[in-house]
Design brief:
heterodimer, A: alpha/beta, D-Maltodextrin-Binding Protein, domain 2, 2 domains, 20 helices, globular, B: mainly alpha, MetI-like fold, two-stranded antiparallel sheet, 13 helices, 1% strand
Chain lengths: 467, 295
């Protein structure tokens, strides 16, 4: 037991220590960084390669650090492949890629930030951009990249990366957080029409009941507060037309019929045994559906990639549809568009080089991005018009029915992820979970209202919405 | 002459202390003092840190979830430590009465869980508590009970994560307890036999009092370790259902991971330090440890 005792505390203390060491070491550097850009020690390791060239000035490559979250193996491979290509394509910038596992990300990054050694470039999800921009953790990209590349973005995605009128990130992909997957064969067996998936919450419950049998649950949806926290954003919009906080972040806004119905929806699914009483896997992992344990499941669009890679024999039995909505109106949002971007660290010494790399990788030749969307089995979507245009010329992509359905029926109505602190999301999610576990719906909402209002007061949140 | 020798002794003593004092200063004392310092700031890595006085501490203390996490940590420790101690006490007696060969084998076997990482154990127990086909549900099905949501039910979640904790710590606790038992001179028991004492009387009047220091050690390491449990709830329940298994360290970790500023996490870590210190002090006080009177 001793070995893992106080790991977090140790982490914090280590971070603190590194910070102090760096403080003492920073004093005499920093003033000469403007001279040649790389008088420091970063570039030196790459020099030997060029030493042999007679007469010519040794071309010193600027080295920049890039940390990418660990995603699917195919994504990691894509990052490696195109980073190598970039390094070969020119002799100015050398990008050093590090793949960081998700559970180590926060510790590793915060320790590095505290030490002033954060990577020049890193992956960041949309919801992280506004808080990071507000606290100076990331740099605006307007001057670091060709401004025209931002015109290529869809308007709604452009908003996701804009804070106070400046672009702080360049998006790589969008993926809707909630899509309905259902088993056509089980629909038929239960006397339901496999061409008509449920469109209202009531139908979802009704079908779920009919589809439940021994060993197979009728449906599955997020059921723990940390999962509900983000996966229900779309449904919160769907139910009430807004999120559980006012636009200026000054007050909780939860007491309405829409949210009551939303909580009742989850509660019924849980209490009536339509969904398992204990989750078979986390919301983001749709494997139990692929394994045949569920008749319907709600998960993100990325589940398509999972089914296509790991459950090929199930593919012809799987139907894909937009997540049902409160009243059957499928033009109301049911999803948020999550996804990942690249950002440049606020203290990066080589922001131009970082911008150059991001431009090459995400905003340059559409073929690079198409390569990515292919490896993801078209389960992720492009934020760029030119990539979509090019992809429509691509046979495999344009023939893909699932891709088409999500691109046409889900994404256009999806909302941006909220930029407010996670505490607000988790407070509302806790209300949903406690309703599922038997708490009265109104009481659960009252508690969430109080928690959110307390949090607003405590953290002086009112009026800080950056968007 | 004598004076010189003393001085020389001191030099040797201080030289020998250096290897531990220097790393301790660098890795524990300085960071601790610095943590105290930054806990009074809205500490940001990119902007000027702002002095906020006691606000971080007040926010933590006003957070019902922090108090709940402390209580959860205590409850968890109460599930784990007594069960572990009683089991270890009994099992240590069993081992003591075994032959050398067999006891060697048993000692090795029960030590195995100790070297298994908490993460691995968590994953194993997640399979055991699986809703559809986990071992636990197969077992209760045999008695005609329907499937239980072990990790998702508010009532069973904490005991369910206490089980792997008991399993993980059982081996080392038993071995330490056994070492304590073997340390008690056989002559005490012989004398008691002559006086006609039964095994119960011997346990109450000889074994338990002479194990006091061992028990004290196990209680303090056990309690502080259990309250700081972190991986088991992180992997098995994510702190849920409804924060029932959010232990203090998981609470701190969640804030560290999600907060934009780290002041709240540092303040809660320091407060947890106070809680752990007080618990250790209480245990010392209650057991009123003195060096066992040696025969």
């Amino acid at each position: 037991m001793q070995a893992y005792r106080g790991k977090v505390l140790t982490g914090i203390l280590a971070a603190v220590l590194m910070f102090t060491l760096v403080l003492s070491g920073c004093g005499n550097s920093g003033t000469n960084e403007g001279n040649t850009g790389n008088t420091g020690n970063q570039g030196s390791t790459n020099e030997p390669a060029n030493d042999g060239n007679a007469g010519e000035k040794p071309a010193e490559k600027v080295t920049i650090e890039f940390w990418a979250n660990k995603f699917e193996d195919t994504t990691d491979a894509w990052f490696k492949k195109w980073t190598d290509e970039f390094n070969k394509s020119q002799d100015q910038v050398q990008v050093k890629l590090t793949i960081v596992p998700g559970d180590a990300w926060a510790q590793k990054l915060k320790a590095a930030q505290a030490a002033g050694k954060a990577p020049d470039i890193m992956t960041m999800s949309y919801s992280g951009i506004a808080p990071a921009a507000k606290t100076g953790q990331i740099k605006p990209l307007n001057d670091l990249m060709d401004p025209t590349v931002f015109d290529d973005l869809y308007d709604n995605v452009k908003e996701f990366v804009t804070v106070d009128g400046q672009f702080y990130a360049y998006p790589k992909l969008v993926e809707p957080s909630a899509v309905l997957y259902y088993r056509k064969d089980l629909f038929e067996a239960a006397g339901l029409d496999p061409a008509k998936p449920p469109v209202t919450w009531a139908e979802f419950i009704e079908y779920g009941k009919k589809l439940t049998q021994k060993g197979i649950f009728g449906a599955s949806i997020a059921q723990t507060a940390p999962d509900l926290g983000w996966s229900s954003w779309g449904l919160q919009h769907n139910a009430a037309g807004h999120l559980p906080i006012t636009d200026d972040w000054s007050k909780a806004d939860v007491m309405n019929d829409g949210y009551k119905q939303l909580l009742t929806f989850y509660k019924t699914l849980y209490q009536d045994g339509i969904m398992p009483k204990q989750q078979l896997s986390a919301y983001a992992d749709a494997a139990p559906f692929g394994q045949g344990k569920l008749a319907m499941t709600v998960s993100g669009s990325w589940a398509m990639g999972l089914f296509r890679n790991d459950y090929k024999n199930m593919l012809d039995k799987i139907g894909v549809a937009p997540m049902p909505s409160i009243d059957g109106d499928q033009t109301k949002p049911t999803s948020t568009l999550g996804g990942w971007t690249l950002v440049v660290d606020g203290k990066s010494k080589q922001p131009e080089a970082a911008g150059q790399y991001i431009q090459y990788l995400l905003a340059g030749d559409p073929a690079i991005m198409i390569d990515f969307f292919k490896t993801s089995q078209f389960s992720k979507f492009s934020p760029r018009k030119s990539v979509d245009d090019a992809m429509n010329q691509d046979e495999a992509a344009s023939a893909d029915e699932w891709r088409k359905l999500i691109a046409e029926k889900v994404i256009p109505y999806a909302k941006a992820e909220p930029a407010y602190p996670w505490d607000v999301s988790i407070a509302f999610a806790t209300a949903i979970e406690s309703a599922m576990k038997g708490e009265d719906v109104t009481k659960a909402l009252e508690k969430a209202e109080k928690t959110i209002n307390d949090y607003i007061a405590k953290s002086k949140l009112a009026g800080t919405n950056p968007q | 002459m004598k004076k010189n020798k003393t001085r020389f002794d001191n030099v040797t003593a201080y030289t020998m202390l250096i290897p531990i004092v220097v790393p301790l200063t660098i890795f524990v004392v300085i960071p601790f003092v610095y943590a105290l310092y930054v806990s009074f700031y809205d500490w940001s890595f990119y902007q000027e840190s702002q002095f906020v006085g006691w606000r971080n501490f007040i926010n933590v203390l006003n957070d019902p979830l922090f108090m709940k996490a402390i209580v959860t940590g205590l409850k968890f420790a109460l599930f784990v430590v007594p069960a572990q101690m009683i089991l270890a006490f009994l099992f240590a007696h069993v081992i003591r009465s075994m032959g050398t060969r067999l006891s060697g084998f048993v000692k090795t076997s029960i030590y195995i869980p100790t070297i298994i990482s908490g993460i691995v154990a968590s994953v194993i127990f997640v399979f055991i508590f699986d809703y559809n086909a986990g071992l636990a549900n197969v077992l209760v099905n045999m008695f005609g009970v329907e499937n239980q949501a072990w990790l998702a039910d508010v009532k069973t979640a904490l005991p369910s994560i206490a089980l792997p904790a008991i399993w993980l710590g059982f081996g080392i606790t038993t071995l330490i307890m056994l070492a304590g038992l073997l340390d008690i001179p056989e002559s005490y028991y012989e004398a008691a036999d002559l006086e006609g004492a039964g095994s119960w009387t011997k346990m109450i009047h000889i074994t338990i009092p002479l194990l006091k220091n061992v028990v004290l050690f196990l209680l303090i390491t056990g309690f502080t370790g259990a309250i700081q449990q972190f991986e088991l709830p992180l992997v098995m329940t994510g702190g849920g259902p409804l924060d029932e298994t959010t232990t203090p360290n998981l609470y701190i970790f969640n804030h560290f991971r999600n907060d934009v500023l780290v002041g709240h996490s540092i303040a809660s870590a320091l407060l947890l330090f106070l809680v752990l210190g007080s618990i250790s002090a209480i245990i010392f006080k209650v057991l009123n440890s003195e060096k066992a009177v040696d025969g």
